[in-house]
Amino acid sequence: MSAIHEEERLDQMSNTLKLLGDKTRLTIMKLVDEQECCVCELVEIFKASQPSISQHLRKLKDAGLVKENRKGQWIFYSVNPDSKQNELIRSLLSSLPSQVYKIEELEKKGLRISCG
Amino acid sequence: MSAIHEEERLDQMSNTLKLLGDKTRLTIMKLVDEQECCVCELVEIFKASQPSISQHLRKLKDAGLVKENRKGQWIFYSVNPDSKQNELIRSLLSSLPSQVYKIEELEKKGLRISCG
DNA sequence: TGCGTATATAAGCATATGCTTATATAATGA
DNA sequence: TCATTATATAAGCATATGCTTATATACGCA
């Protein structure tokens, strides 16, 4: 209703879109929406450095878009279903092609982390 | 199906989201989706400089997201319904609050351009 | 406790981005 | 044709962004 809220909505959406306007982060989101992944798996999948992936995840986490789940020495990331932007996220990710095959490739190489 | 197309889709979407990850451009898109606007109107609405608005419009046009419609000395911009990203654009804009009130404010100030 | 693995953070750097000012181009109307 | 208005483009600059390398922190296990 009020212009105040309208401004907020525009701010929120543009901030979220800016975050997802990076191919690596957008793909991470799609991937961890389908299957929670730990950092080292993402490093392998994206052929990126560990700090680079870690920094992307930090931005996504700071925005509340992903959540962590520590399992021993690994930290698994997944899409945060309680995010304020969840509707938007759902809509965006639903129109992207599945990235599960990337995880399956990992598995074939024996690089998939599986712990309890 | 193919990983090639999947990569393309991710590229396309992340590029589009990056463009709309700017509050000014996102708002311009919502605005000109509801009512075509010329540059000088946008300058007034956003309290921005003419070159700044012009440069934002250039980016949107280069990406095929908006189209031009010259009327005399003015160039009116509107959302391009034939954009490759039209579905995505429709989805995003539909969840944003109407910006028509900004045009109405212009009208009150007598700054609305109307040329039939 | 100490070592190896996983992850996060800090600092530095090159490039991208969005603004500014200045100028060019295009259209209107006297 | 000339002045005015609208718009686009170019160049320069400050800040943002995403990577790198180096280092810190956290956990598991011997």
TrEMBL record, chains A, B:
Domain HTH arsR-type: 5-104
UniProt entry tagged with the keyword Ubl conjugation: no
SUPFAM superfamilies in alphabetical order: Winged helix' DNA-binding domain
Keyword Transferase carried by entry: no
Keywords: DNA-binding, Transcription, Transcription regulation
Pfam families per the UniProt record, alphabetical: HTH_5 (PF01022)
Recorded coiled-coil stretches: none
Superkingdom to which the source organism belongs: Bacteria
Family annotation (NCBIfam families): HTH_metalloreg
Protein name: HTH-type transcriptional repressor AseR
Species in which this protein is naturally found: Saccharibacillus endophyticus
